[in-house]
Specification:
about 190 residues; alpha+beta; Helicase, Ruva Protein, domain 3; three-stranded antiparallel sheet; 5 strands; globular
């Protein structure tokens, strides 16, 4: 039997519904760390299932660094005004804007990366794979391209405040928490230099 206090503690730590917390704790046989891992896995599945829903609301958040030289603007979208007016949703948008100002993403998702840029990356890493056996050259190039894209693509970047999470992980957790599809629709990084 899982106590209400343990369920409350998990809810406070994750922000996920009481029922989902209780199910995760039951599945994890009361182990808090395992329950958090279960909820994390389920958040990605939930976000995937909601992936085709229309985004009709959202919030714009900005971040200007204290030196006034760097800033960003993010449009975090959701399905309803009910979620977009939630303080936690707006706080998430601000966190992503702050992250974007620090991490300087060039693209929101891999789907946004033009073919020409992908081709350029392949060409750039080809000389590094030239000395490798022929049967693994393409894998070496792909690995290097994927590593570089993880630096350039917002959703794949490790979150600056907790590098155990990616921005996509934050979005997935928000979808689970709010029960709606959540997505970064626009992101603009601006710098004086």
């Amino acid at each position: 039997m899982i106590s209400a206090d343990v369920v409350k503690e998990l809810r406070d730590r994750t922000g996920v519904s009481v029922m989902q917390c209780k199910k995760a704790l039951e599945e994890a046989k009361g182990d808090m760390a395992k329950a958090i891992e279960i909820l994390s896995r389920k958040s990605a599945d939930i976000a995937r299932k909601k992936g085709d829903r229309a985004l009709g609301a959202g919030v714009v958040a900005s971040y200007i660094h204290t030196n006034g030289q760097v800033g960003s603007i993010v449009l975090l979208s959701c399905e309803t005004d009910f979620v977009s007016k939630n303080e936690e949703f707006a706080a998430l948008a601000r966190e992503i804007a702050m992250h974007a100002a620090a991490a300087r993403p060039e693209y929101i998702s891999r789907a946004d990366v033009p073919e020409a840029a992908l081709s350029e990356l392949h060409t750039m890493f080809a000389p590094e794979a030239a000395g490798k056996p022929e049967n693994i050259r393409e894998k070496v190039i792909e690995g290097k391209v994927n590593a570089r894209l993880a630096e350039l693509v917002l959703l794949e970047q490790p979150f600056i405040k907790d590098d155990s999470k990616t921005i996509q992980g934050l979005i997935d957790a928000a979808s689970q928490k709010f029960g709606e599809r959540v997505a970064v629709s626009k992101c603009l990084y601006v710098s004086v230099k």
